[in-house]
Amino acid sequence: MTFSDDIMQQTKAWPFEQARALVKRLKIMEKRGMPHRATLGKGPVVFQTGYGPSGLPHIGTFGEVARTSMVRQAFIALTDGKYETQLIAYSDDLDGMRKVPTNLPNQDMLAKYMGKPLSDVPDPFGTHASFAAHNNAMLCDFLDGFGFDYTFLSSAEQYRSGRFDEALLTMLERMDKVLDIMLPTLGEDRRATYSPFLPISPSTGKVLQVPTLERNIKKGTIVFEDEDGTKHETPVTSGKVKIQWKPDWALRWTALGVDYEMAGKDLIESTKVSSKICRALGGTPPDGFNYEMFNDEHGSKISKTKGNGIAVEDWLKYGTPESLHLYMYQKPKTAKRLYFDVIPKAVDEYFQHLGGYAQQEDKAKISNPTWYIHEGNPPNTVPPISYAMLLNLVSAANASDKDILWGFIKREVKDATPENNPVLDNLCTYAVRYYQDFVKPNKSYRKPSDKERAALEDLRANLSQPEAKTMRASELQSLIFSIGKEHEFENLRDWFKALYEVLLGQSQGPRFGSFVAIYGVEETCGLIEEALAGALL
User: CA geometry: angle at 138 spanning 135 and 142, to 5°?
Assistant: First the structure.
């Protein structure tokens, strides 16, 4: 699906806002007499995301790659695919290991490698050449599982292969400018010993945070004091040093020609500093934006260290991959709760967007998240029953497996089977898991008030009439609505809330007429009888 240029220029969809800024960047470079390599047909427009391989890929890694891919897709559409593009997934695996993660095997072995580059630390799992190689492989498997189009780059390989050599020599030459930018951002003690160059000890192999005692621009070397007190002169090229992280970010942007990289809101100041250093090195800082961080169920910022968020595998246990993509698309500059209770809503919202796509005009389609999730070609596979409804069916039936759900589904959806409705079958699996893990432990039924009891008895009596068995969902909804009116509920929300709390043990629920149609009129009568008898308490 392609859009007209007018629509792409006018849409307020955030990926296109970012893409338009990137197109403007290329035009500005051309006006300044420094045309971008992509406009000359000599290389790609480079999008980049970063990853720290001291741990496994997490939901923030997914979010950054997913959102950057959305901007890349918008850019390709906006430029009609005339420029080559590349998305780099960059692993900072030349960093020294600062601590041993407590969830790893072979703790004592790992402790012996503290301070050494992650790419030189043995793999505690014994499956790869190094700890970094293990986690890098996990990153690639993780990204491949979502079908992302990317190029993986290892920091250790870029340094050691010589790809960064030119930029490293420039940084050595312009070290004073780098220090002028960095030192005002540091505390007094750190300023006294700070150097952008972290030499790798020839005796221990550790990444050393020590002062640069001398530098020789012509030779391309620095002098430093090793851990044993001896002085060494070492080249800054060929992987003999690692650059401190903010100058390293700038070095990477310069050497790889990065055009676009987004980062978390917590890195706003770091982005500004690295951009200044990038300019000092003769590079052009990338475009991008700072996204807001996720919060846990208590409103606290999610932290890998605290473990107070949810992992990608947690989300995928209860919801579809597309719903996670949707969650990343929505309002990236707004702080959002990222906890288990957002999953069902995200799943249903995804299918609502998907169901509406085909009928929308182009100016609406361009803001429909499914266009980005499915690379411009959303499928037409919307299940006939929502996740929320399935959860309530599981709740009413106290179902422990999806076969029970299919018994209800087949009553409402003609010729429906797990085989010809695999998307719905997957939703049934998610719903049963979610109910067992989150809904069932927190269900809280209550007794009906006298007024509610009378209305429930009236509802049961009406549903017991022969004609009720042939009523459609809308007719059942009208019947329930009229009973609430007859029993003088001033606010009919209170009537429906009573149905949910008394019959389902929860404060919210589905459109109740639709629930009765799928669950069954007779079954609903039985549910009401149980509630009135106090059997659900």
Answer: 140
